[in-house]
Amino acid sequence: MSKIVATLFMIGVSYTLLGQQQEKQVSIRRLESAAETQTQEYLASFETDGVPTLGAVKAALAKAKAENTIETWMKAARLANSYSNVVDVLSEHYLSYYQKLQQGAATFPALQQSAEKLYTKEQRKYDSTYRSYKTVRNDCYLSIAELYLAQGNKASALSYTMTAVELTGGDELITRGEALIKKIIEYE
Predict the structure, then answer these.
(1) Which residues of 50-87 are buried (b: 16+ CB within 10 A; e: fewer)?
(2) Most buried residue, 19, 141, 149, 174, by most Cβ within 10 Å?
(3) pTM (2 d.p.)
(4) Cβ-proximal residues to 186 (8 Å cutoff; 6+ apart), any chain
């Protein structure tokens, strides 16, 4: 009887381990699939608007200000957004590394303190740039909204304005966005 119980136990353990291994393989395939999807999205964006360099963003903004068209503001918004997303990858890398350092702080306290200063400084710099270019994108959205409103397209104007206000953190953009929303919905 005990041999039967032991055999059944071993079979159960084997199925559990097999199931865990299969779940892990499925999880890895999902991650690989998600990574491939993300890679294709990045590539499509970079092929459409170009690699989002600081110079490209500044040139797109200058062109948008000079031409003041929906198309030029849209391109500037996409480039600023792409640029901030690329910088965010760097910020997240440093943040992740810093968190790993925190987990090992008790083992190597001296190393942890010096590395902490370097990594938090770099992460903050990247994070500041990330937030700055998200603000640029939101400003572009408000410019797009103003152009749509001038064309009489209140739905598009309101959509871009609400998006900018919801995504922004800057007081100036909130004030500008609030005024635009009030104008569009005729709020008194």
Answers:
(1) bebeeebbeebbebbeeeeebebbbbbbbbbbbbbbbb
(2) 141
(3) 0.74
(4) none
Burial (Cβ within 10 Å: 0-12, 13-18, ≥19) of residue 89: exposed
Q: Which two tokens stand for residue 174?
A: 């909130």
Which residue carries 């500044």 as its tokens?
Answer: 58
Q: How many Cβ atoms sit within 10 Å of the Cβ of residue 94? A: 19
Residues contacting 187, CB < 8 A, separation 6+: 181
Instruction: Read off the pLDDT of residues 10-47 as tens digits, 9 standing for 90 and up.
Output: 566 566 656 666 676 666 677 677 778 888 888 888 89
Residues 185, 153: Cα–Cα separation, whole Å: 12
Query: pLDDT tens-digit profile of 63-122?
Result: 999 999 999 999 999 999 999 999 999 888 877 777 777 666 656 666 666 666 767 788
